[in-house]
Amino acid sequence: MWEYEHHVETAASPERLWRIWSDMNAWPQWNDGIAKMEVEGPFEVGTSFTMTSPEGEAISMRLVEIVSGRVFTDEMDAGDFLVTTRHRLDPLPGGGTRVTYRTEITGAAADQVGPELGPQITADFPDVLAALVRRAEG
Questions:
Q1: 11 CB contacts (<8 Å, ≥6 apart)?
Q2: In the prediction, which pLDDT does 138 show?
Q3: Per residue, what are the HEC states of the chain?
Q4: Are the C-beta atoms of residues 71 and 88 closer than 8 Å to each other?
Q5: Where residue 39 sits, what CATH number does that domain have?
Q6: What is the total count of domains within the chain?
Q7: Around 17, how many Cα atoms within 13 Å sit in the side-chain half-sphere?
Q8: Tell me, what's the pLDDT at 49?
Q9: Alpha carbon 95 to its chain's center
Q10: Which residue, 23, 51, 92, 94, shows the most beta carbons closer than 10 Å to its own?
Q11: Which SUPFAM superfamilies does this one have (predicted)?
């Protein structure tokens, strides 16, 4: 298994952040790593979506967990390995929110692909979370 986690704290409320997350078609407006989104349903468990990078690489994923206002998890199933990213909002005492992205690569090939693929997937997490916070606080 390979894993990575990054978090930030913001004055924005969990409700505001959740509204931004749950509008999947708008993700390219604040996430520079996404040039195009194709969403095959509402923001609910089982919905598939494809993110296309500015370089033209398309990655198909599926929503596998949603706890409204708190957590959503997506997966990219590559057969011999699975990339799971959990997006979590934790209210802070006195206001604000801790926003956490956590990615795990599991499965038969995880030990082979994780050390190379994992850092490629998660390299932009600090930038993505900073952009999310700017949008939520703006």
A1: 95, 96, 137
A2: 87
A3: CEEEEEEEEECCCHHHHHHHHHCHHHHHHHCCCCCEEEECCCCCCCCEEEEECCCCCEEEEEEEEEECCCEEEEEEECCCCEEEEEEEEEECCCCCEEEEEEEEEECCCHHHHHHHHHHHHHCCHHHHHHHHHHHHHC
A4: yes
A5: 3.30.530.20
A6: 1
A7: 29
A8: 98
A9: 23
A10: 51
A11: Bet v1-like
| Tens of pLDDT, residues 98-125 | 999 999 999 999 999 999 999 999 999 9
Of the chain, the percentage scoring pLDDT greater than 90 comes to: 99
Residue 79 sits in which domain range? Answer: 2-137
- Between the two ends of the chain, the Cα-to-Cα distance in Å is 37
Which amino acid does the sequence have at 25?
N
Distance CA 33, CA 65 (A): 23
Q: Using an 8 Å Cβ cutoff, are 91 and 97 in contact?
A: yes
